[in-house]
Design goal:
Elements lengths: L2 E4 L2 E10 L2 E4 L11 H11 L3 E4 L6 H15 L9 E5 L10 H9 L6 E5 L5 H15 L4 E8 L19 E9 L9 E7 L7 E2 L17 E2 L5 E2 L5 E2 L1 H23 L8 E4 L4 H10 L11 H5 L6 H16 L2 E9 L3 E9 L4 E6 L5
Parallel strand pairs: 2-17, 5-6, 5-7, 14-15
Antiparallel strand pairs: 1-9, 2-8, 3-4, 7-8, 9-16, 10-13, 11-12, 15-16
Helix pairs in contact: 2-3, 5-6
């Protein structure tokens, strides 16, 4: 079972960057045939209102570079201070080389720094945090730079109303460091899960080597609900995703809290991947969580940010508190794969915990 209890690694700082372009659902009535009542229902029940995206020339690597540069400056770290770099993304610049290697070069890191990508989506930050913490605690790395981000707005068809209004673009940079000898531990619990039998539920079928992006794969088709997409676009079975979330996530949270021997009121904040408000609220109610400790308004203001949504929520909803004091937070990521993961850890006081709007390329 992929579970761990670590004690000698901690989160030292966090910066999130969102795409520079704001898009409002109210400005896209053509997606729903001009049906304003349907737009209002989506805004009220699911929590969709607006999202921040990147222009076509801006990638997750660009946003991650901005976040990493800001983080390192805020922590007064030089390139030589880092020992490893992990980049979590499913929208890389290239098949080869990996984003981590390119960012390694952009940041001017020394050749002694290990750099690699992790191909995961909405569960990716928790997976990446686990890997970074392992490197810091047991792998001889003093400081690990973790970058997570996606530009999924580039992967969906603009006339696929099932997914086009959902996704925002963002990236986050986190610094995970080894706790020096003599300092108190920072206990963290992790639990990681996968169900590959659900791989088709969230999928971008064409564009890889199994199904190249041929002319046939790029041909548009319209489904029974009026959604337009090609085989090269991301698609999602929303009903199956919802069922998966309600089936697995309460068990995930209950199991982690039982292992850590903490009660509901012992956790300062429950930070779920910001898929949509409806899913988060249903999970929180099933777990009898205090709703004031469950941020759930990110998706309606910034969109579903994939692997960057958890760190962005930490920066946006908990940034002031995380800079001022120590918080016990429970992180839950879930999505493509199917993959889901949770972490219970102490965060803060952080020297840097902020979010900014990205700068568009010239």
């Amino acid at each position: 079972m992929a579970e761990a209890h670590l004690q000698r690694a901690r989160l030292a700082g966090l910066v999130s960057v969102v795409g520079p372009e704001r898009r409002r659902l109210d400005d896209e009535p053509e997606l729903y045939g001009g049906n304003r009542a349907q737009l209002d229902r989506l805004k009220r029940t699911i929590g969709l209102a607006e999202r921040w995206v990147s222009p076509p020339a801006q990638t997750a690597l660009d946003l991650g570079h901005q976040a990493a540069t800001r983080l390192l400056a805020g922590l007064a770290l030089a390139p030589a201070d880092l020992d490893a770099l992990i980049f979590v993304t499913q929208t890389p610049d290239h098949f080869q080389p990996c984003n981590a290697a390119i960012l390694h070069g952009r940041l001017g890191l020394p050749t002694s720094v290990a750099a690699f990508d992790v191909n995961l989506g909405c569960s990716g930050f928790v997976y990446g945090l686990y890997l970074a913490s392992l490197l810091a605690e047991t792998g001889g790395c003093r400081k690990v730079l973790l970058v997570a981000g996606d530009t999924l707005s580039h992967s969906v068809h603009p006339r696929d109303r099932a997914v086009a209004p959902l996704f925002g673009d963002a990236a986050a940079a986190a610094l995970v460091e080894q706790i020096p000898p003599g300092e108190p531990p920072s206990p963290a619990w992790f639990s990681l899960h996968t169900d590959g039998s659900g791989a088709d539920i969230i999928k971008q079928p064409a564009g890889g080597f199994r199904e190249p992006a041929t002319n046939a794969a790029l041909t548009e088709h319209t489904d029974a609900d009026g959604n337009v997409r090609t085989r090269a676009n991301l698609h999602m079975n929303g009903a199956e995703v919802f069922s998966f979330n309600l089936r697995e996530l309460p068990l995930l949270v209950e199991g982690l809290m039982r292992r850590a021997q903490v009660g509901t009121r012992d956790v300062d904040a429950y930070v779920f991947h910001q898929a949509n408000r409806y899913i988060i609220r249903n999970i929180a109610r099933r777990l009898h969580l205090p709703l004031e400790r469950v941020p759930m308004d990110i998706v309606e203001r910034f969109g579903n940010q994939s692997s960057a949504s958890i760190p962005f929520t930490l920066c946006h909803s908990l940034g002031e508190a995380a800079r001022a004091r120590r918080l016990r937070v429970l992180l839950v990521g879930y999505g493509v794969g199917l993959s889901w993961a949770s972490a219970l850890l102490e965060v803060g006081p952080l020297r840097v915990c902020e979010w900014i709007t990205g700068v568009a390329p010239p």
